[in-house]
Write a structure and sequence with these properties.
It is a single chain. The protein is of the alpha+beta class. It starts with a strand and ends in a 6-residue tail after the last helix. The chain has one domain: Alpha-Beta Plaits, CATH 3.30.70. A hairpin with a 2-residue loop joins strand 2 and strand 3.
Length: 110
C-alpha cells in the first residue's frame, strides 16, 4: 500500500470544502487541507488566464485513486479540473498507519 497526496485546484474555498467533505464522507481520503488563496496562471482556450483559486490537498492511498477521480470530476465546477496524484516516497509511519485505518473504517461505524 502506498500513500499519495492529491492536489486539486478549486474555484474558491467553498468548493474546496464541499469536495473535501464529499471525499471524506465516502472514505476516499483520510485528511484534507485547504489553502484558501493561491494565484494560478494558465492557458485556457488560447488565452492566458490569471485567477485566484483555492488549493485542496488530500491524503489517500493508491487504491482510492480511480474513485477519487470519478467523484471529483462529478462534483467539480470546472469542465477540466486539475486532479493530480503525488506518490509519497517516505512519511511518518504512525501517520500512515492512522490513514490506512481511517480509510478502511466501515461507513456503518461512523
Amino acid at each position: 500500500m502506498q500513500m499519495f497526496l492529491v492536489y486539486i485546484t478549486c474555484k474558491d474555498k467553498k468548493e474546496a470544502r464541499k469536495i473535501a467533505k464529499k471525499l471524506l464522507s465516502e472514505r476516499l481520503i483520510g485528511c484534507a487541507n485547504i489553502v484558501q488563496k493561491i494565484e494560478s496562471i494558465y492557458w485556457w482556450r488560447g488565452k492566458l488566464v490569471q485567477v485566484q483559486e483555492s488549493l485542496l490537498l488530500c491524503k489517500t492511498t493508491k487504491e482510492k485513486i480511480p474513485e477519487i477521480k470519478k467523484m471529483v470530476k462529478r462534483v467539480h465546477s470546472y469542465s477540466v479540473p486539475c486532479i493530480e496524484f503525488i506518490k509519497i516516497a517516505d512519511q511518518n509511519k504512525e501517520y500512515f498507519e492512522w490513514l490506512k485505518r481511517v480509510l478502511v473504517y466501515s461507513k456503518w461505524q461512523k
